[in-house]
What we know:
Elements: E1 3-4, H1 17-21, E2 27-30, E3 43-45, H2 56-71, E4 75-78, H3 86-98, E5 104-107, H4 112-121, E6 127-130, E7 140-145, H5 147-161, E8 166-173, H6 176-192, E9 197-204, H7 215-227, E10 232-236, H8 241-251, E11 254-259, E12 275-281, H9 283-295, E13 300-306, E14 313-315, H10 320-323, H11 326-341
Parallel strand pairs: 3-4, 3-5, 5-6, 6-7, 7-13, 8-9, 8-10, 10-11, 11-12
Antiparallel strand pairs: 1-13, 2-4, 12-14
Helix pairs in contact: 2-9, 3-4, 5-6, 5-11, 7-8
Pfam family, one: Bmp
InterPro entries: BMP_lipoprotein (IPR050957), Peripla_BP_I (IPR028082), PnrA-like (IPR003760)
Family: Belongs to the BMP lipoprotein family.
Amino acid sequence: MRRISRITVAGAATASLALALSACGGTSTSAGSSDSKGDKGLAIAYDVGGKGDQSFNDAAYAGLEQAKKEFGYQTADVEPTEGETGADKEQRLVSLAKQGYNPVIGVGYAYASAVKGAAEKFPDTTFGIVDDETINAKNVADLVFNEEQASYLAGVAAAKSSKSKVVGFVGGVDIPLIHKFQAGFAQGVKDTDPKVKVLSQYLTQTAEEGGFASPDKGKTAAEGQIEKKADVVYAAAGLSGQGVIEAAAAKKVWAIGVDSDQYEQEALAKYKDSILTSAMKDVAKAVYSLAKSVEDGKPETGIVRGDLKTGEVSLSNSNPKFADDAELQEAIKTAKEKIISGEIKVKSS
């Protein structure tokens, strides 16, 4: 259940955002017609990989674009910098709040300490964080998802589509968040066909090592799994997942995308025929909904969770070969219904 508290919108500051943020990452802003109070609107600070990852960060940007179009206000989106610290992230969020942006969202669990610190300094600004639920503050919305549920359905799809009886999972970084993807996927595979083997690999131990931002690492990992007979490979690796998809296309096997509908991503168009489906979480909707709640004067706060029941995690149906496979679609529908009813309890680790 969403917990709601009424938050006063922060006033706009006069300093230039570009100057304020020059020490902690690039920024782009979009100006629209401001409301009568002169308030600025939604600002997001990207996770590792930045805009253009065709996945997690781009989904957040889509939510920002929807809010900008609907509410006609000024928005900002800010890129991360290599080797930045938690203090750098907090400075970035503080700078956005000083400018009068509201809400301000950190995209990714790495912003946890930064969001907590900035929220304490600006109690009249609503902050959001995607993929973290550790912050207990009256002006913070923890935007989280049951990724393991969509991953379970991806596992069903992989098991039903594999001819070699070997499938692969590539995780960007060996952390609890990505363990959810792996656990759900492996359970979905095994519940569908216990004879199918799941190969799993994490690219790095920490995000700083590039696990979410290195397509070359993703490609190498996928190639290794394909050499071991994997004919479906699921990546939960941010920008690195593009390398997994590239490897799958080159070897004529299936890839399963993540977070966004990667079949529809323009940058991946030449590989789209090899993208079976994507395990999606609607980061765009979560970002937009938080902005709308602030615009309506009733900001979301506390844990705001998306799952199969709410429709905020799902499998994409863009690939006709996937959408038109009646047997596969029936298996996924059955699994989805059992998860929603509670008959299937999906593991998160």
